[in-house]
Amino acid sequence: MIGLLVAIACVSVAALLHAPAMMTRTDGRTLGRMSTGIRVVRTSGEPMSFGTAVIREKRALHDIVVDTRVVLDA
Do residues 64 and 29 touch, judged by C-beta distance below 8 A? Predict the structure, then answer.
């Protein structure tokens, strides 16, 4: 039982951190966003930081909170 809880916790942490890490390394893109040709940008033009990406993943109103938009990647 403890092993199952530890496994669930590890998978949850990995899932929570994967998208922000990808967005930081690939300028606002994840694999899914790359396949659809979109990315997340900050309205100020600043690069996507890990902290911004983490907050964006946790919040329902994420684009307003961290001042980002999803745009067509040209």
Answer: no
Residues of the chain with pLDDT under 50: none
Is-above-0.70 flag for pTM?
no
Whether 67 and 46 have beta carbons less than 8 Å apart is answered as no
Q: How far is CA 27 from CA 5, 22, 51, 70, in A?
A: 34, 8, 14, 12
The Cα–Cα gap between 62 and 1 comes to 35
Sign of CA dihedral 64, 65, 68, 71: negative
Longest dimension (CA), the chain: 48
